[in-house]
Amino acid sequence: MPLISPSLLSADFGNLQRDIEMLNDSQCDWLHVDVMDGLFVPNISFGQPIVKHIKKHSRKPLDVHLMIMDPSRYIADFRNVGADILTVHYEACTHLDRTLQAIKDAGMKCGVALNPHSPVMLLEDSIQLCDMVLLMSVNPGFGGQKFIDNTYDKIRTLRQLCNRKNPDCLIEVDGGVNTVNAAMLCNVGADVLVAGNAVFKSDNPLQTIIDLKQ
Ligand code: DX5
Ligand code: ZN
């Protein structure tokens, strides 16, 4: 069964505590926390102070997805506000190897995210350092976008790369994931499913999380 990481980007920001408590009581595994800087992506979401409060209420690990330029500047900050897994974008790092090492040295699991236009083989020489690879299945910046079908092929290619060089590395898929495509994503090799709109716009989020898992 896949791990489910609901994205708080689609939660009610006026009632974050309520939504986090709902997730605490759900079968989800992690909370996905999208940090955007208005530069790497066109949107601005929230920063460290909000993540600190999310941590205060959450009983699940925080899966923090940094959509910011030069994320190495903020590794200690996000460790201090409670990130358990810290994912940075390949496209936003000049020295990815050094950044991943710094995340591990700070005591977190490290992830690398690839935009839809970035081929999996860019990770040929850094996959050994990754605890997780996040494949963007939409162009990052907004929730509620349509899933890009080419992602299935990218998951298959990444699975092969992981099998060859780092079998413990998790594959996370982020963007447009729903109860219709979840099974196929797992069949081709996804380990972790992020879902924002599918969970928070559902009439029954708890059941939707179960459906995604199954
Ligand atoms: C998009 C974010 C996603 C987003 C997914 O840039 O990285 O985590 O919240 O939302 P849905 O599941 O609605 O596509
Ligand atoms: Zn995300």
Write the layout of secondary structure elements.
Elements: E1 3-6, H1 16-24, E2 31-36, H2 48-57, E3 62-67, H3 75-80, E4 85-89, H4 96-105, E5 109-114, E6 132-136, H5 151-165, E7 170-174, H6 182-188, E8 192-195, H7 197-200, H8 205-213
Parallel strand pairs: 1-8, 2-3, 3-4, 4-5, 5-6, 6-7, 7-8
The protein binds D-xylitol-5-phosphate and zinc ion.
Question: What does this entry look like structurally?
Answer:
An eight-stranded parallel sheet has the order 1-8-7-6-5-4-3-2. The mean pLDDT is 98. By secondary structure, it is of the alpha/beta class. The chain is globular and about 45 Å long. The protein has helices spanning 16-24, 48-57, 75-80, 96-105, 151-165, 182-188, 197-200, 205-213, and strands at 3-6, 31-36, 62-67, 85-89, 109-114, 132-136, 170-174, 192-195. The protein has a single domain (3-213), classed as TIM Barrel. Helix 5 links the parallel strand 6 (132-136) and strand 7 (170-174). The chain contains eight helices and eight strands; from the N terminus they run βαβαβαβαββαβαβαα. D-xylitol-5-phosphate is lined by residues 7, 9-10, 32, 34, 65, 138, 140-145, 174-177, 194-198.
